[in-house]
């Protein structure tokens, strides 16, 4: 397959294939489900299942799997073959029931204690809005995952619910504004994905990368990212070959892989797709991360998706571009030529401003992870403080609304001189601030605080839900007023005035902003345990329960799952460090010290006049550091033992953050100092220089 259009979607049971392979009535029934969320009949499902199976078998498939996104943070699948006994032979079969519902044993997936152990059953249900696809001779069916008693056990169900919710609330508001022809609104998302690519041989020699996805030790290389020569630099041959194959694999799966380039740190890269509906974008991003890893293996490389694989150079994030579009094709976040007259745009903008202000804690929580703790607030990615950037034009418009002044945009001013050639609201004036965690970028918002490995379902269902909530409140205000125009204007002004503290157009990396944000009363949570302490605040539980996204019990379960997961991850990191310290680093430095000591006595045996200054001073320094290292190893070990005694989840997570993590950092510092003075031939691990500049 050489031509891209032929290759694109060849492994997907997409609309074209459905149209070709399904009877007209089945096709239109399925389309109604996909487009309008109408329930699907079993008889329709039977026909669809059979057509899917025929296609999959023709493509060489032997198995199918329900593919789902449990709370583990990675996707899950259980494969069943299509075989069905027929006398002493088998035939290939796949029923509508098997398509619609699966029953994987759910007992080992995290549920936060929702599911009693005797009730292990969990169900996967087909999500017809995301197309089935083929990988490795298996038909993959995107599904949602819940327990026997209906509790949500995955990330996709809340996303689907939140999309419905946002749609119905947005439609009601649009109807008030006179847009009666709109019947549905869709959330669109384009996630830009960062990653590191390193040589497999280097990876295999680093237990820290193998067990934790990040380096726990490692002295800085003489060169890092200070020359900015990697960002958008020309792509190395081996990386280019990887990227080419990655694109092709993604295209076959119908993923709209569009942009690829080198990122800021050495060995760091980015891939961005063209946006699609939030649901498909989520599935595709999960798929993308898996394919990135798989393709790397074939090139003798390893793709690292950890948020901070290497200290001292940038970590990896994900930019979640988010917007809302009507079924009539209108992007509700497009300000148009004259945002000052565009009440509909202003109203939706006001809803988002209010949502981000009132639920800034939730936005912070949704991007919290052990890995992302290394980035947020650590002076690289956006800070831990959530604020919004609107850009010069829109910022000025909002100010003029609040102050009740007439708005004069840059574009307008030019127009009066007769030289305006700008076709639309100027996008470039809104994209200059790369430090903002939540930036308006022309016709969408870009949420930039996500970590690279995060499942984007979570930030998107938070966003959808909080915006749906504000829209439903707007609707209550507007639905019965005699003069809609006046009421809308008044509501916009009141809302923007009340929530203007969340708007910040300056540099988010400065200390001045941290102080200013504190004055404004904005949240600044430095770590996952600190952020999650607010997850089950009353207003947050109310938000999700009122909008029917997840129940209070489910939220409490999620809270437990996250804190437990965090503590487990930090424990694995600490244990890995201890292992590396005791089994490799200590013996390596000791053998080097022995060599130095032997050299000193050998030299002394030859002649008293030979200088042993170099050996002695080095030996002295290493000896001192080794003493500190061994003591700090013991201190870390002690902290891990202490942590095991803690049975209160939040306290345990906080202990890991405040004590275990601190001791890990201290241990690392000493190791890195020793690394920079020890013979490279005896140091047990490849250096940062070798790893970061090795491909
Ligand atoms: P850049 O950030 O480099 O200027 P773009 O703004 O064109 O690039 O797009 C960045 C990402 O935003 C892409 O993944 C793109 O598909 C996505 N995007 C563009 N428009 C929308 C939209 N309406 N909704 C969601 N994502 C969008
Ligand atoms: Mg971008």
Would you give an account of this structure?
By secondary structure, the protein is an alpha+beta fold. The protein has three domains: 151 residues, Roll (Ubiquitin-like (UB roll)), CATH 3.10.20.70; 375 residues, Glutamine synthetase/guanido kinase, catalytic domain (Creatine Kinase, Chain A, domain 2), CATH 3.30.590.10; 127 residues, Four Helix Bundle (Hemerythrin (Met), subunit A). The strands form three sheets. Strands 9, 10, 11, 12, 13, 14, 15, 16 and 17 form a nine-stranded mixed beta sheet that branches. Strands 1, 2, 5, 6, 7 and 8 form a six-stranded mixed beta sheet that branches. Strands 3-4 form a two-stranded antiparallel sheet. Strand 3 and strand 4 form a beta hairpin. Helix 3 crosses helix 4. It is globular and about 100 Å long. Bound molecules: adenosine-5'-diphosphate (ADP) and magnesium ion. The site of adenosine-5'-diphosphate has 15 residues, from strand 9, strand 11 and strand 14. Magnesium ion (MG) binds next to loops.
